[in-house]
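Sequence, please.
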């Protein structure tokens, strides 16, 4: 007998075998479950992903829509160029990350190797331009100006240039018809970023990695309409990359065309006149600073008074938007953004804000009437206005005696407005207003005129300007109090004294603040487009329009036209009677007031012009020239920083713009054949059967004609200035810096505390 079982296995061995069997069965069960999950439960998904590994996409970029002027002339369109691009993915596969290839490529293209390498590096917070801010998987353009010979060298020696392509492509072109630049209005393009792709993934207008997107101006504002939709063809390929069939194909959809209200001819004249006025100002001597005027920047807006449509918008300094096409160079980028660039990328018509000076007096006049003052009442126009120990002088110490508000606008009498604003400040309780809400008629009127907020123009990054009312002063004081209290000194320099006063009561509306505000000084800031809206509204009877540049979006085939109609923004806070009296006074500015010496000989009986000059003082800088004008059809606003007086720096230029619009000749006669736009363009350009838009030919000659007109008018009207208190025109040899506006400024300078 034995205790060993017949199997010959001990109990311990048997237990081990059972455990092993259980483990094996568990593993088989787990494997079976996983196979079921992969092949049955998630089979369709993995099959789709597996097939995707054998599908390659070929993207056909959409043709971007054109931007056209009101007559159909292309301001921005496309042209075919030979584009040399580099695949960053292929370059990084090489041992030296493609440096040798890029150096060799630079030699073929006649470029600096360092510049080529900079173009293919990726942009980040630490990497300055030039760099690539698009997708790293997208071909990066090196140049769009390759010659046929250079392209052939690259294509025929493909083994020497792995990752480099040379292909004809449609690229953006900013045509500048008739030399009209329009840079800040049009904007520019650059590659889409991964962040933008992700953000727009689930929207109605997603991006592809090959897309170029608008970065400023109309290119950005209407990017979704202009961009179109890229075509994508998906090919099935085998493991060796050979095409075995076409999976799916979506045809490219070209972008729509944007018809604008810009007239390229008027735009050219506006740009030319602004540039000429700035150059002329730099030749004039400023007796206050002892140097010539700097005239470092400026803007002009021409707007339809009855619709708000912008006919021309120029900003200086300017730039060539074509420098962005195909990737911007380090030199060009520095010229546009460097400390010494004067920042030409800024559109100063909507982003340049400064104290408006006396052009603001239309707001103060409306406020005074609303407060109960009679427009035709008698208000003392004294030589100065004293408050405590401070004297606020009138220009040139002039004393017109008791005058109406209309006459105060004509001769730009500061002391009339000083007195009105001071009286209202006192009625409101002075520096410590009475319980309850102060009336604040002057600040309320500015808001009702649309100041302190965007106009709603269809361009990105418009600034609001500033109305320095009580609420703003409180916010500003809270933000700056600590710094003022640190640097302020009771008996220190001018700046230190101001800081000391602001530390103590910078949150309160002081008497001097109210006085300065009434004539558009102090902390008040406006933009040219805001003034264009205001003066356009005075012209049309009181209706403020939302300004627009886009006039219609037209599909590529021409079958769908979406018009952008004028929108009413609001009404001026004045009655018809007040508007009519104000209109008459502003006509007087051009005939017998501060602008009369620049508009002498103008056919006022046939084409009445209205104007308001402004010379804004800015602490630490030369004065800003403002000239706000309107006719029955247009409002024209020009401003030039550090250029002197409103009429002195801008008068001739604004007159020449009107001469071009209406065909006014040097002798005051009107030549309708030479009038560029005697009435606003109402209809859209004709759309052809194939969807193209008919456009007149632009040779540049119209611009030359207008330059000749401008020269004639300048020679005829540039040497007359007011000679007496009544504004009687008299021939004189006094240069622009010796005109009445300048003499006024020289006498009153230093009597105000102004900042901007």
């Amino acid at each position: 007998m034995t205790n060993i079982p017949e199997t010959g296995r001990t109990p311990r061995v048997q237990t081990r075998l059972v455990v092993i069997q259980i483990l094996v069965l568990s593993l088989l069960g787990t494997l079976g479950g996983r196979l079921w999950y992969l092949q049955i439960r998630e089979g369709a998904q993995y099959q789709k992903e597996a097939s995707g590994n054998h599908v390659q996409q070929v993207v056909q970029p959409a043709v971007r829509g054109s931007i056209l002027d009101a007559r159909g002339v292309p301001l921005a369109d496309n042209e075919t160029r030979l584009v040399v691009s580099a695949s960053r993915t292929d370059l990084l596969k090489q041992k030296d990350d493609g440096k040798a290839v890029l150096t060799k490529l630079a030699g073929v293209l006649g470029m600096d190797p360092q510049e080529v390498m900079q173009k293919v590096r990726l942009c980040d917070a630490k990497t300055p331009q030039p760099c690539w801010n698009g997708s790293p998987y997208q071909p990066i353009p090196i140049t769009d100006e390759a010659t046929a010979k250079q392209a052939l060298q690259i294509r025929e020696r493909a083994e020497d240039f792995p990752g480099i392509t040379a292909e004809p492509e449609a690229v953006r072109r900013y045509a500048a018809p008739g030399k009209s630049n329009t840079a800040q209005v049009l904007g520019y393009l650059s590659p889409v970023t991964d962040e933008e792709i992700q953000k727009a993934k689930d929207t109605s207008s997603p991006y592809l990695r090959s897309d170029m997107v608008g970065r400023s101006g109309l290119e950005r504002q209407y990017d979704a309409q202009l961009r179109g939709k890229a075509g994508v063809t998906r090919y099935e390929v085998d493991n060796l990359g050979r095409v075995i069939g076409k999976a799916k194909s979506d045809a490219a959809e070209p972008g729509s065309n944007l018809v604008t209200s810009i007239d390229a001819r008027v735009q050219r004249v506006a740009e030319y006149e602004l540039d000429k006025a700035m150059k002329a100002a730099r030749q004039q001597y400023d007796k206050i600073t002892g140097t010539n005027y700097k005239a470092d920047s400026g803007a002009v807006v021409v707007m339809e008074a009855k619709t708000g449509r912008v006919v021309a918008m120029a900003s200086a300094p300017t730039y060539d938007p074509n420098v962005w096409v195909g990737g911007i160079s380090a030199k060009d980028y520095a010229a546009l953004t460097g400390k010494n660039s004067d920042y030409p990328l800024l559109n100063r018509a909507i982003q340049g804000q400064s104290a408006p000076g006396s052009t603001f007096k239309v707001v103060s006049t409306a406020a005074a009437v609303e407060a109960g003052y009679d427009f035709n009442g008698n208000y003392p126009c004294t030589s100065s206005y004293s408050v405590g120990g401070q004297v606020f002088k009138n220009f040139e110490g002039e004393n017109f005696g008791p005058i109406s508000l209309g006459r105060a606008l004509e001769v730009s009498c500061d002391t009339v407005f000083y007195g009105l604003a001071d009286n209202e400040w006192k009625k409101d309780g002075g520096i410590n207003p009475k319980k309850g809400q102060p009336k604040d008629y002057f600040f309320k009127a500015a808001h009702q005129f649309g100041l302190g907020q965007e106009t709603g123009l269809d361009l990105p990054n418009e600034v609001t300007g500033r109305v320095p009312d009580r609420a703003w002063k409180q916010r500003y004081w809270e933000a700056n109090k600590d710094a003022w209290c640190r640097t302020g000194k009771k008996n220190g320099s001018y700046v230190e004294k101001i800081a000391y006063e602001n530390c103590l009561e910078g949150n309160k509306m002081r008497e001097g603040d109210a006085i300065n505000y009434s004539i558009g000084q102090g902390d008040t800031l406006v933009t040219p487009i805001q003034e264009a809206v205001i003066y356009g509204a005075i012209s049309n009877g009181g209706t403020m329009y939302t300004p627009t540049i886009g006039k219609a979006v037209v599909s590529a085939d021409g079958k769908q036209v979406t018009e952008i109609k004028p929108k009413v923004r609001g009404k001026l806070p004045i009655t018809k009677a007040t508007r009519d009296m104000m209109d008459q006074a502003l006509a007087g500015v051009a005939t017998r007031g501060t602008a009369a010496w620049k508009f002498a000989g103008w056919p006022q009986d046939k084409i009445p012009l209205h104007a308001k000059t402004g010379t804004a003082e800015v602490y630490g800088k030369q004065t800003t020239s403002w000239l706000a004008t309107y006719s029955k059809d247009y409002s024209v606003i020009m401003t030039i920083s550090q250029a002197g007086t409103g009429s002195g720096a801008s008068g001739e230029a604004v007159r020449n713009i009107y001469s071009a619009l209406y065909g006014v000749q040097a002798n005051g006669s009107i030549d309708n054949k030479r009038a560029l736009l005697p009435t606003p363009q109402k209809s859209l350009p004709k759309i052809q059967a194939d969807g193209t838009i008919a456009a007149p030919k632009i040779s540049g000659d119209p611009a030359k004609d207008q330059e000749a007109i401008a020269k004639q008018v300048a020679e005829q009207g540039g040497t007359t200035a007011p000679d007496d208190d009544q504004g009687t025109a008299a021939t004189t040899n006094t240069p622009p810096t010796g005109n009445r506006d300048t003499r006024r400024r020289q006498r009153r300078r230093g009597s105000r505390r102004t900042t901007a």
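Confidence is low (pLDDT under 50) at residues 708-756.
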